[in-house]
Amino acid sequence: MLKARVKICCISSIEEANMAIKYGASALGLVSKMPSGPGVITDELIGTITKMIPPPIATFLLTSETNALSIIEHYKKVNTSTIQIVDAVSEKEYHKIRKALPGVKIVQVIHVVDEKSVIEAEEISTLVDAILLDSGNPNLPTKELGGTGRTHNWQLSKKIRESVNVPLFLAGGINKENVREAIDIVQPFGIDLCSSVRTNGKLDEKKLEAFFDAVA
Prior knowledge:
The protein is α/β, with parallel strands linked by helices. It has one domain: Aldolase class I (TIM Barrel, Alpha-Beta Barrel), CATH 3.20.20.70. 37% of the residues lie in helices and 19% in strands. It contains eight helices and ten strands. The protein has an eight-stranded parallel beta barrel, surrounded by four helices. Strands 9-10 form a two-stranded antiparallel sheet. The longest helix has 11 residues, at 68-78. The protein is globular and about 45 Å long. The mean pLDDT is 91.
């Protein structure tokens, strides 16, 4: 039985970070300024949390910036191990980020909408260290760039996973009831979740424990 790694997103405090790590998270998502969605915290707090995380645990800065200079400046405020780009950027921007931050991993979010998402993922996968599939909609007047709590077509996610040569994270509406099905269908490198392990926006220890029990 495949066991996927787990990334807990929307971490809002050192206490939440430690709780997620306690139950088995191998990565933490730290959400900076977004046009919509949950979990946004200040860059100052992201930097503070990052400093307290032990090296084996990956820290992801979720940024909605779309040009290399802004992404690089944003990263230097927080110094996470990974940059998660939640909106579309051009190919030349990836190269600029690589040149400026050679030791930092780049993860690109692809919002799975239709077959075009498969082509998009294939093209971008050659430029990044990993792909994260989510259920947002960047084409709305107010962009949805994650944290929707909705699932998407996992058959498309499976198709993407089979067509790229980098690790793939699966996000979007994952919870204790459907995580095994998601893992069995898509066989991702990792699972990413936020709202399903929270109560009134706060990380819930009982929900967290139940989720990791379901993944085991």
